[in-house]
């Protein structure tokens, strides 16, 4: 199976997830509609005041983070491979009377579908694992950034993706640096483990070295790489809630989250 077929399998799975996710407690659309932000402390602290900034949100699902930034005064465009997700994002945008733009395409094809350049390119939590190669991804990010703009990613740590979570207890099964696709098929979804959906997914694990090197080779300057024990999401087995309401391993054996900020130098 080639990567185009793998992408199509993933697109169909995400299309099937959208309606389940939109009515789940995990995404809490009722309170989101009332004004609750979907953004977490890591990205809020890293991006700061985004009022008046243009933001490209990669792999936006059904647009909650995109719309949260729009509520903060940013001019936002969200991209996702799922047409069902983009349809819900557009509906929410109209309902909330915001001015975000949404485009349905494979994230690697963003440059062919969007001509604008942005102050900020943003992606978060469970995105790069759907991509087989980060070099074209990083190249696209550089193409979409204005001179002096920055890219920011907050993502689950690659060590956390070395485990097979379809078995109990989770077993370390996948390589930290693994070129081969990882195929998983299981019932349910992270937003609703009791749903009857059958998720069929192809993913790839990317080391921190691959993330950093791909961005550097695309002409971006790394401002920081941070690793954190605590995740805002309780999506891995055996996590405990800390005093800040975040989730972490009881033994803190490895980090669950990393952040990278990279600048497109204005002198280039």
From TrEMBL:
CDD domains per record: AdoMet_MTases (cd02440)
Domain of life from the UniProt record: Bacteria
One GO BP annotation of this record: methylation
Domain spans labelled Methyltransferase: 55-149
SUPFAM superfamilies, alphabetized: S-adenosyl-L-methionine-dependent methyltransferases
PANTHER family tied to this protein: TRANS-ACONITATE 2-METHYLTRANSFERASE, TRANS-ACONITATE 2-METHYLTRANSFERASE-RELATED
Protein name: Class I SAM-dependent methyltransferase
Protein source organism: Aequorivita lipolytica
